[in-house]
Amino acid sequence: MTEVRNESGPDLGAVWHYGDPMREQRELTDGRGAVDQSHRGVLSITGPDRLTWLHSLTSQHFEALAPGTATTALLLSPNGHIEHVMEGVDDGETFWAHTEPGAAAALVQFLDSMRFMMRVEVADLTDTHGVVWRPAPPEASTGDDLVVRVRDDALGGHEVIAPLDRIDDLLGDQRAGTWAFEALRIAAGVPRIGIDTDHRTIPNEIGLVGVHLDKGCYRGQETVARVHNLGRPPRRLVLLHLDGSVEALPEVGAELSSGGRAVGFVGSSARHFELGPIALGLVKRNTATDAELVTGEIACGQEPLVDPEVGLHVRPKLR
């Protein structure tokens, strides 16, 4: 099986495709295949206080989290800016999570610094564990050393956190690369923290991903609650349909403009087997929802993913 690996970008070193990324996308859409995501960071949190501790630190509700229920949680700055993300599941004894490539060490260091007298232990498992995503549930005989998580977003599918020596067997013969996975994720409107966001992004701008609005205080809550109550987040997430006549895709962070004025930036991009070239972007709230956008020489149509007026006073427009 031919492997072509990413030579740059956030997924550096991961398999980009196995020779036919469009076929790989179609197979994933049809419920077949698996994607190796072992380049992502993996961590575990153990101890009897882990859920109440995470509840106090993050944007998510953990106190009543049932074993086997997937959750996504953000760690925010005091001003409400997104600093870290954890996509995880608790098995009744351990909270298992993965995060963006290269981010686990800093995340674990921060969590360790916040333990104080709590009965918790945080471990970086990136060197020993990996993640496999597949649209269908894994085989029933996967074994006790695997953690299965059903994604809690519009992309869906099943993630298996496993020791690295189990990854090859979990992938099987029908494999897909990050090109196929990213194309489906972007089409589903699911942002990646640190790629489709920047250091100023607040959760309201990306649809309150990983945020529970009915819980107690946590760092950055004041900003999230204020913008939610008043509406009108400073920026909003959009799905970009790129001009297919231009061969290149925009770089992560490329400027988006409208009428010669900078209005935002491009995050991740990919070529989708049905939609063509697509990307996610973050644009200023006052950018008209039907405005034509441009990044470099590439014209972009936009599909709003977050209503520019969203808040308690307005009903969000659902896709």
Automatic annotation (TrEMBL):
The keyword Transit peptide applies. GO terms for biological process: iron-sulfur cluster assembly. Substrate binds at residue 159. InterPro entries: TrmE/GcvT-like, YgfZ/GCV_T_CS, YgfZ/GcvT. Keywords: Transit peptide. The keyword Transit peptide applies. PANTHER family: TRANSFERASE CAF17, MITOCHONDRIAL-RELATED (PTHR22602:SF0). This is Folate-binding protein YgfZ. It comes from Candidatus Avipropionibacterium avicola.
